[in-house]
Amino acid sequence: MGLYDKYILPRFLNTACGTKPIQKQREKVVPACEGRVLEIGMGTGLNLEFYDPSKVDMVFGLEPAADMVARAKPLADQASFPVEFIDLPGEEIPLEDNSVDTVLLTYTLCTIPGTLAAMEGMRRVLKPGGKLLFSEHGRAPDAAVSKWQDRLNGVWGHIAGGCNMNRDIPTLIEEGGFKITDMDQMYVPSTPRILGYTYWGAAEIR
After folding, report:
1. What pTM value is reported for the model?
2. For a tag site, which of 42, 148, 198, 206 has the least CB within 10 Å?
């Protein structure tokens, strides 16, 4: 791991993903989490303040980056519910089948390399009747914006730890074996349009 990835990237991502408009998006979905929650890509713990303690039994924070976990742990220690950090040994979520009530995705699908395999793992651990909650930036519907997303995606990925600005989020979720039951979308205010088109809502296993 280079100096950029170790020292600069975590701070850059924490700042970019912690702006006020992005935090407002988190506030729209995180409080709906219930029971045993699997948060995919916990990062530095930006979602922790938005969980409803009266609904949540515990949170499994999936985060392979040790530097991100180190930043999240102080926030997790202050939470009024248990938070357990887990890694990705062998690229498989280390939880039993049908063991969580909610899977939470916030600004994570843009970075996961093998999205279909990841979605399969989420389906495996989610209980029947459980829900997937998401808020993700992705491909804009306007041709003028999506053209620039395609042009700049590679450069942005090198800067932002593999983040893709042009992924079709609804298609990824549905191709991953989920059915979207509720979804809104818009350009998030005060955010560059190539990075700000956001989809948020809920899905269930097909």
Report:
1. 0.94
2. 206
